[in-house]
Amino acid sequence: MTIPVQVTFKGMDASPALEARIREKAARLERFADRIMRCHVTVEAPHRHHRQGQLYRARIEVVVPRGDIVVTRESPRDHAHEDAYVAVRDAFDAAVRQLEDHMRKLDARVKHHEPALLHGRVARFVAGEPYGFIETSEGQEVYFHRNSVADGAFDQLKVGDPVRLAIAEGEKGPQASTVHRVGKHHPTL
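User: That's the sequence. What structure does it adopt?
Assistant: C-alpha cells below.
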C-alpha cells in the first residue's frame, strides 16, 4: 500500500529534492505501521531574522486507526536545524518511535517477560540510516534499529562488536527488540 503524502513548505521556496526525501521517508513508515491512512509533512522556516541562520521546523501528522501521531521538531538552540534535511530527519525518527508505541498499544502487544538473550556481532550498518544488522552465533542475520540499543549506545557500536540481543518477530522478519553491548566495560548479562 502506498501512503498518501502531502508536503507543504511555509516561509520558504518549495524544494523538489527535499520533497523527494520526505516522500522516501514517509514510504518507510509502512515498515512500522501497515495501516497508515495518510501523512502530512510541513517544513517551515519561521524565523528569518536570526543572524546565525534560519532554523527549520518540521511537523509530521500521521493518521492511523484510532489515533493520530503528531510530531513537531524545532529546536531554537540546536543549530543542526539550520539544515531543513536534519529537521525532517529528526521529525521522522520521532514519528517512527511514536508509531511503534501506538501500534503496540493498538495490537495489544504487551511484554510479559524479557526473552533470553542471544550472542551476536554487528555485521553492518546502513549508511546514513539509524539501523543495521547483527549476525547471531547461529549465523542468522537480524535487523536492529537505533532505538533497540540499550543505554543509547548505538553511536558507539562498530562492525564486529560483540552484542547480546533479544529477537522478536517483526513485520518483515526477525528483528532485535533489545541490543546490549558486550565487552571489557560492558559485561554480558
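The longest helix spans residues 84-106.
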